[in-house]
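Allow me, if you will, to draw on your knowledge of protein folds for a short while. I have a record of one protein: its chain in single-letter code and its fold written as discrete structure tokens. I should value your view on which stretches of the chain appear to form regular backbone elements. Thank you for your consideration; the sequence and its tokens are set out here:
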Amino acid sequence: MTDRRRRTLALGAALVAYTGLLLVSIAILQGGAVVGDLPRVLVALMPVPAAAAIIAISIAQFLADDELQQRIRLTALAVSCLGTMLVAFSWGFLEGLGYERLSGFVIFGILVGLYAVGYLWSAWRYR
């Protein structure tokens, strides 16, 4: 089995673990069986180790890529980070007018969406 395939399988396993831990965490917290701040915090943070594994595997994959693929991904990250920064700052000005605050989940969605756009654009440039 190639290293790329092994990392892809590990990434899939980490994503499944994250999803499972997230669903279990939500079910436990909504069930009301956990009492006290510290236990509730620990249950809420159950998916974090799987998320850390996803990050570690993604970085390993990035480092294993050839230079062109790294450049494409780096461009996508730049588009994603800078575009999200522009949206977040712009929305911050609107909050001064009374608009609701954006949650971290919305910001994360924007980040991922702009990464996809940046990746497709950058890959198109180098085809």
Summary: The chain has two domains: 1-64, 66-127. The mean pLDDT is 94. DSSP finds five helices and no strands in the chain. The CA atoms of residues 62 and 69 lie 8 Å apart.
